[in-house]
């Protein structure tokens, strides 16, 4: 069936592989006391850790959908984001405001990535 | 061109196939008098029916993006969702709150799936 | 690594190609004085221009995620959308309301498309 799942619990797989493409479910920060810069950093590093588990890194991201809880956090999100990606390796992205399930989350990201050649 | 479309009307295809991947448009319940459990069940079964039309089922889902109209429906959504997937076969998922086009809809899902081997 | 990026700036690629699939980041209108019909037209034509840069057109779209700022714009969005696609070539789509980053934007679209045979 050509589907490989990673980080499996009853409710979801954290990452799914199919046809050389990796699909990562909604990622949020566990340290919800952190401000937007801290939460953004934790989310991006968490996504990278998932990619590293299959031999990839941040440069393999294809798309990131960003859901931001508060408009005033947009500048802080971008400060961390822009520093995270080496020039020429940022994914396609879209960012809108959204009410997140846990009001303590200030940002959630949904990503897809290319499977690195193994 | 290698694109196959299913459930075609002027405005959209209900499902599109490309490169062994199935893309399903936003799915909602037609019985909008149902509560969150009823609407969740109808949406999930509707998605499975689309997959069955190409020889698949719920275990072929790769990702589901869940848009929930009301935060207090989160527990009911998850009760139906968790019972729906055999352990180890749930997709990557992300769930946020959103205002849906028809205020009678309590949940909308957008899914991708793997084409079963035929 | 098999990732090709188009329209690259520090923050993002406007379009990314991987495994015969094109991923387009969030597209909005630059003429924010336009009404919903004008903004919808500009966004759809902007997406088509990206596809034309790799030899495609509107019929190569697989999915479009529509984020609409105001419910009362739904009819105007659909008037332009329905006229845009030749019958049988519309993508899978999902449309919900969302608060967009710039309050002058009335619609944002996130698209995926099939790479045309070259």
Comma- or semicolon-separated keywords:
homotrimer, 2 helices, 7 strands, 36% strand, six-stranded mixed beta sheet, 24% helix, 118 residues, alpha+beta
Description:
The structure is a homotrimer of 118-residue chains. With 118 residues, chain A is of the alpha+beta class. Chain A has 2 helices and 7 strands; from the N terminus they run βββαβαβββ. A 6-stranded mixed β-sheet of chain A has the order 1-2-3-7-4-5, with helices on one face. The first copy, chain A, is globular and about 40 Å long. Chains A and B meet through strand 2, strand 3 and strand 6 of A and strand 4, helix 2 and strand 5 of B. Strand 6 of chain A pairs antiparallel with strand 5 (92-97) of chain B, so a sheet runs across the interface.
Low-confidence stretches of chain A: none
Largest interface: A-B, 27 and 31 residues
Largest sheet of chain A: 6 strands, mixed
Percent in helix of chain A? 10-25%
What's the SSE pattern of chain A? EEEHEHEEE
Indicate the structural class of chain A: alpha+beta
**Oligomer status:** homotrimer
Separation, N- and C-terminal Cα atoms of chain A: 20 Å
**Rg of chain A from C-alpha positions?**
14 Å
Write a concise synopsis of the structure shown:
Three copies of one chain form a homotrimer. Chain A is an alpha+beta fold and 118 residues long.
